[in-house]
Please model this.
Amino acid sequence: MQQFEFDVFLAHNSKDKPQVRAIAEQLTRYNLRPWFDEEQIFPGDNIQQVVSQGISQSKVGAFFISQNGLGTFQENLELGAIIQFFLRKHNQQGFRVIPILLGINDIPDSLFYLSQWAWIQFPSSNDEAALKRLIRGIRGRGAEVQAQPVIQIPDTPLIIEPKPPQSLSTEQQRRLQQKRDGLQQEWDLRSEKISRIRKALAIENSATVKFQLEQQLQDEVARLDDLNNEFNKMDALLSSQPGATQSKSSSPKVVETPISQPVEKPDFSPAPSPPGINLQTFRFETVTVDVRGNITNRRNCEAKYFVEDLGNGVTLEMVQIPGGKFLMGSPDGEEGRRDNEGPQHEVTVPSFFMGKYEVTQAQYQAIMGNNPSNFKGEKRPVEKVSWNDAVEFCKRLNEKTGRDYNLPSEAQWEYAARAGTTTPFYFGETITTDLANYNGDSTKDVGKFPPNSFGLYDMCGNVWEWCLNKYHNNYREAPKDGSAWLKGNEDYRLLRGGSWYDVAKDCRSASRVRGFPDNPSDIVGFRLVVLVA
Model:
């Protein structure tokens, strides 16, 4: 087996050197030897030659991407060039390449071709979980690791951590206990959520909804297992301190959570193409976050769409939304829930097409000949439009195209927003300002944030979106076929999705508010659907 002088070559933008230096120092504590330019390049060296030798003498290559982008690694040597060298060596020799996000959440567009790789995310240079993932990547699968005096390797091959010090300071013990208390709160919340999911499974008959609940249950149980491991490590460390007494709270234990019965993944019914339309395919990435807003999963998806030409270079993209069943509304225990979000009820939604984005100012100008928006920008969503304005837009668009564009029914909107999820947000239990435009100061260009699994953008935040329905203060007697609820004496119409101005809870998939049909606002816009046979 080839012997390498270095365990990992650390490539980075020179602006990120302080953070990468800190990570390199931590790796040495695990008896790993990183190639780091400050230690390996000396005055008078041929930089390209030294770098090339360093890569050839390294077992693994890791590159760091931050908000500073690719940039310069060393004089006359770009980080992008090193990445390409890594990839060629990977293709030719099986060289392991580890991509790392440093202080950012999203893979840059310039590296989207690597989105299927397993990236490591360092929120900061001292993030312990990310460091462990990096160590695992460097050592590789099935590597035999010899115990060293400065480290301890537990029986579990997936957890590699430094040997705890003989004693912690009082301040270190306090911080560790605070961290443990925070994990305890998360454990309690997730345990309560598992209980709710089990109760829902016990009474649920819909195969589609049961599948969604089963998937959610498995994710929650897996996270509780991880929490238990963290509890055990913390308790062992705290109890080993001089003068330590029994921990105030013992580590929680996960109760066996059998999956009730295997549930087949439901088949979504594809939407038929409108006459004379050739569907195209686009690819995109969706993300899932934990209760703290940290990205825990990235998934590559694809969807079909067609393009409507509005003239003068302005187009409208309509995404195919498959038909299916879903549980509309929010459960009693959901944080931020209002009484008008219940009772939960199953709805069957036929297939349809929905706007990939909220209607933009350029699109509104092309059809209506004016732009009422407060925050100007062709790619920003049109706002300061009333429900009546949105309906008039649909009427004129139909006259131009010969199709049947309309505002979505409330059921269509929530079904499309959830995209198969049952969590408060289609990203998971929470959102952050890296995922949606909320709690801000203005609208933003459409499509800047990650989409949901149907390929729809900005269903959370940016602007509230008008629905066709009349407003009712609960779902009793609501249609269950996905159609708009137009009966009743209410003068109000429905708004969904939250806006740039609102707090997170107003951007949940189940959140709903009312508005007068003739009342425009700079937090309100709309999105289109087109009906198909």
